[in-house]
Amino acid sequence: MTKEEVAAHLELIGTLMELRGDDAFRTKAYHGAARTIEQLEGDFDTLIATGKLAKVRGIGETLREVILSLAKTGTADVLEELRAVTPPGLIAMLRIPGLGPKKVRALNTSLGIDSLETLRVACIGGKVAGLKGFGEKTQQKILDGLTFIESVGERVRIDQSLPLGLMLLERIRALPGVLRAELCGSLRRRRETSKDIDLLVAAEDSAPIMQAFCTLPEVRHIVGQGETKSSIVAEWVTHGHRITLGADLRVVKPDQFASALVHFTGSKEHNIRLRQLATDRGWKLNEYELAGPNSRVACETEADLYAALGLDWIAPELREDTGEIEAATQHALPKLVEASDIRGVFHNHTTYSDGVNTLEEMALAAKALGFEYLGIGDHSQSLTVARGLSPERVRHQIAEIDRLNQQLDGFRILKGIECDILKNGDLDYDDDLLAELDYVVISVHTYFDLPIEEQTARICKALRHPATTMLGHATGRLLLRRDGYKVNLDEVLQTAAEHRKMIEINAQPSRLDLDWIYVKRAKALGIPLVINPDAHSTDELALFRYGVNVARRGWLTPQNVFNTLPLPAILQSLRIPA
DNA sequence: GCCGTTTTCGGCCCGACTGTTTTCAGTCG
């Protein structure tokens, strides 16, 4: 089993234990281990072989055995035992808002409910309301929840949730009495997907703000409304897509805003570490204050609060408890790359292949964005569905780029290609043609189902090709739609490092591939990353910002990102005559 | 199930809201 599969199975064991009614701290250990394994840096197989697993925080003797068993055999005794006593449909029931393991277990043992369908029938028949601990309202809430999970996916992509979140934020900031307001949660941390939108407001009087929030035009229904916290489901139509997403609003007093902002930005794991730091000093930390036994620490900003705990301010993107607390203690946090550091982008498409704008239109749009250069990477010949370029068309495009570069003042179009990696790891053009180009992006678009060893070998072979400059969308994943192809990324990164190749952060919000966890790993190996929008239109050039988010989550500084270099340095690095 | 300069047992982050209770359990973040 791969690292990801082991993590997913640990998660499953934890959930099944919850449904069985196991001790909460025991189940938490499994959930914690799942997360730890998922974010492990370094090669998983090596880690297992060298027995280093035992040194990882949160993994003791029992979990080590379970992980080894999962990795080797694909299952574990504890998992099989749990599966034998738990109907698989119970897990689906946990997705209903308001239903947790205890209630699901009660429904199963008392009424024999074991699926969403039997649950619906029992609710309609009024059987659930009669159960101890349940009632009419709970029964109705379950029915609403069943409808809700049919209409809403679990998570949405950041390009859908962030605009909706920012729009709600603007509406809230415009309300009278709102002193400060921010987006919080996974959106503020710029995670690639979100489950809901978290909003925080500072105000003296919360009631009118709650009232206004719950009656915003985007509100489809109100999940809960209290004095300081309300939850709604918002619906919004943009670019022809209907987006339905939950949104929570918290209102606090102005002097509570900094601690509340930290609290609601999370992540949960980051907050737990902060509270432990507070506890170590005999203080307590919650959303309202950082306080000692006799007095509270005045915090106007987040930085004040972090400083009181002996930490430098930590950018929201880093707050995942993957080393940022330690780095902040030692004043060793990286100065993260920003969108304004990006001087140009590679890997973009034009009407030559499957783009919708011409070469010239793309160049002018890139220049208007403030870029110094635009790299073109249309598809190569074998990808016929995307109108991949024949060698003649490539040379035609090269000639047109030369002409346009004569006209464009202070701006340069770079001649690249998104070259398919063929099934055997060869590139899609002969060496002579590849040598005429300024750079080569290599990508997998075919044979997604190869065995992991073959896929890895294929990509590594293409990476070793002297003409190769950078690897595009390393796993081919489509967020919330399709897993990437099976590939040993640690080996791919190792090969890239050895042969001094770059790796792309594909900034398409549906991809965000390389994942930030591996971005961090690539940085550790000294591999330059390149943030590319993979734009198929002029509008899509601006998507590079989503790639910057990934880079920041991966701890990258401007020095780690190739396209923060100005044009002269790019030309020199790629050995292009000025 | 994990962990340890309060160390091999007894802790483990903390509070809001809801619904079903009559003082609290469950869920959520």
UniProtKB/TrEMBL annotation:
<keyword id="KW-0234">DNA repair</keyword>
<dbReference type="GO" id="GO:0005829">
    <property type="term" value="C:cytosol"/>
</dbReference>
<keyword id="KW-0227">DNA damage</keyword>
<dbReference type="InterPro" id="IPR037160">
    <property type="entry name" value="DNA_Pol_thumb_sf"/>
</dbReference>
<dbReference type="Pfam" id="PF14520">
    <property type="entry name" value="HHH_5"/>
</dbReference>
<dbReference type="InterPro" id="IPR050243">
    <property type="entry name" value="PHP_phosphatase"/>
</dbReference>
<keyword id="KW-0239">DNA-directed DNA polymerase</keyword>
<dbReference type="InterPro" id="IPR047967">
    <property type="entry name" value="PolX_PHP"/>
</dbReference>
<dbReference type="GO" id="GO:0140078">
    <property type="term" value="F:class I DNA-(apurinic or apyrimidinic site) endonuclease activity"/>
</dbReference>
<keyword id="KW-0235">DNA replication</keyword>
<dbReference type="Pfam" id="PF02811">
    <property type="entry name" value="PHP"/>
</dbReference>
<comment type="function">
    <text>Repair polymerase that plays a key role in base-excision repair. During this process, the damaged base is excised by specific DNA glycosylases, the DNA backbone is nicked at the abasic site by an apurinic/apyrimidic (AP) endonuclease, and POLB removes 5'-deoxyribose-phosphate from the preincised AP site acting as a 5'-deoxyribose-phosphate lyase (5'-dRP lyase); through its DNA polymerase activity, it adds one nucleotide to the 3' end of the arising single-nucleotide gap.</text>
</comment>
<dbReference type="GO" id="GO:0003677">
    <property type="term" value="F:DNA binding"/>
</dbReference>
<dbReference type="InterPro" id="IPR003583">
    <property type="entry name" value="Hlx-hairpin-Hlx_DNA-bd_motif"/>
</dbReference>
<dbReference type="Pfam" id="PF14791">
    <property type="entry name" value="DNA_pol_B_thumb"/>
</dbReference>
<dbReference type="InterPro" id="IPR002008">
    <property type="entry name" value="DNA_pol_X_beta-like"/>
</dbReference>
<keyword id="KW-0548">Nucleotidyltransferase</keyword>
<dbReference type="InterPro" id="IPR016195">
    <property type="entry name" value="Pol/histidinol_Pase-like"/>
</dbReference>
<protein>
    <recommendedName>
        <fullName>DNA polymerase beta</fullName>
        <ecNumber>2.7.7.7</ecNumber>
        <ecNumber>4.2.99.18</ecNumber>
    </recommendedName>
</protein>
<dbReference type="GO" id="GO:0006281">
    <property type="term" value="P:DNA repair"/>
</dbReference>
<feature type="domain" description="Helix-hairpin-helix DNA-binding motif class 1">
    <location>
        <begin position="126"/>
        <end position="145"/>
    </location>
</feature>
<dbReference type="GO" id="GO:0003887">
    <property type="term" value="F:DNA-directed DNA polymerase activity"/>
</dbReference>
<feature type="domain" description="Helix-hairpin-helix DNA-binding motif class 1">
    <location>
        <begin position="51"/>
        <end position="70"/>
    </location>
</feature>
<dbReference type="InterPro" id="IPR004013">
    <property type="entry name" value="PHP_dom"/>
</dbReference>
<dbReference type="InterPro" id="IPR043519">
    <property type="entry name" value="NT_sf"/>
</dbReference>
<keyword id="KW-0237">DNA synthesis</keyword>
<dbReference type="InterPro" id="IPR027421">
    <property type="entry name" value="DNA_pol_lamdba_lyase_dom_sf"/>
</dbReference>
<dbReference type="GO" id="GO:0042578">
    <property type="term" value="F:phosphoric ester hydrolase activity"/>
</dbReference>
<dbReference type="GO" id="GO:0008270">
    <property type="term" value="F:zinc ion binding"/>
</dbReference>
<feature type="domain" description="Helix-hairpin-helix DNA-binding motif class 1">
    <location>
        <begin position="91"/>
        <end position="110"/>
    </location>
</feature>
<dbReference type="InterPro" id="IPR022311">
    <property type="entry name" value="PolX-like"/>
</dbReference>
<dbReference type="Pfam" id="PF14716">
    <property type="entry name" value="HHH_8"/>
</dbReference>
<keyword id="KW-0832">Ubl conjugation</keyword>
<dbReference type="InterPro" id="IPR010996">
    <property type="entry name" value="HHH_MUS81"/>
</dbReference>
<dbReference type="InterPro" id="IPR029398">
    <property type="entry name" value="PolB_thumb"/>
</dbReference>
<keyword id="KW-0488">Methylation</keyword>
<keyword id="KW-0808">Transferase</keyword>
<feature type="domain" description="Polymerase/histidinol phosphatase N-terminal">
    <location>
        <begin position="344"/>
        <end position="423"/>
    </location>
</feature>
<keyword id="KW-0915">Sodium</keyword>
<feature type="domain" description="DNA-directed DNA polymerase X">
    <location>
        <begin position="1"/>
        <end position="320"/>
    </location>
</feature>
<dbReference type="InterPro" id="IPR002054">
    <property type="entry name" value="DNA-dir_DNA_pol_X"/>
</dbReference>
<dbReference type="InterPro" id="IPR003141">
    <property type="entry name" value="Pol/His_phosphatase_N"/>
</dbReference>
